[in-house]
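S1.2 Input.
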Amino acid sequence: LQAIVEGTRKAFPDSRVHFRSASESGQKLIVYTTADDDPGTWWFVDIAKGDASPIGYDRPEIPARDVGASQVWHYTATDGLSIPSILTLPPGVSGEKAEKLPLVVLPHNGPQSRDYLGFDWLAQAYASRGYVVLQPNFRGSGNYSAVYRNAGFGEWGRKMQTDLSDGVAALAKTGLIDQSKVCIVGAGYGGYAALAGVTLQQGIYRCAVSIAGLSDLSAWLRSFEYKRRYNAERYVEKYLGVSSSRADELEEISPAFQAANADAPVLLIHGKDDTRVPIYHSEKMYSRLKKKDKNVQFVKLEGEDHFLSRSDTRQRTLEAAVAFVLEHNPPTRR
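S1.3 Output.
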């Protein structure tokens, strides 16, 4: 079986290969590949015949020339921690020759998740418009080690946040991006990080897009208490670094309570049927920002959940999020 796996990977030397299904003998496989020029292809592999045939494409409308190259890129946070990330360049752009490009920082959801090499629909949308896209796997991200995950405990709005801006500074030192032309976009926890980037931090981002993002951490933690989800409650308290939903420091790291400090335009996008992060979070953020006369827009998605499961609302989200960044952080190339 190991020989079959290794041999199949060699058949796709420039791709990330994911094994999805196999016959009992292991001689016939279904594999899924992605690469810089492959936005997702399904293959039937017949080991005995030494043959691999494509059987389906995730995005047949997207030609290889429109897919930006991505790579793993490490940088060092202010306290010395090495942060792995995914760096995506605009299609046709070489990292050796490009300089002073605009940047979109795209922190992942979770936060105990991580980004991998492969086709990311939101990252590629921005790359196709001429942006470099940085997806930091900040401390607290999952699937590295317990030590790396635990390094995020108590660091919401703190080092988990500065890990992102440290990535901006590190990229600027390479000359690839223009540090004055950066926006931050994210969903779920990434949406929280986007809001925190312009409220808990200042002078870093020209705009922020929050998709189903958290804004009131006290209310979020209370939702676990009310539902008597004890294990989840303890887990969230550990991440937030508090012992209860009444902890004063939660307001210090909740964007809704720091709305007066917002220093860049904000776009809020939220599904009305989101049960993971209720739309209340975006409604409260919008109300607080409006009261402080801040530049804010709010897109409410009818019939949509936390995961943008419907194609029409995902398309609407994509169009609104890209248009907002184009307006407030126009690229040097289209």
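S1.4 Remarks. Residues 44 and 238 are 45 Å apart (CA to CA).
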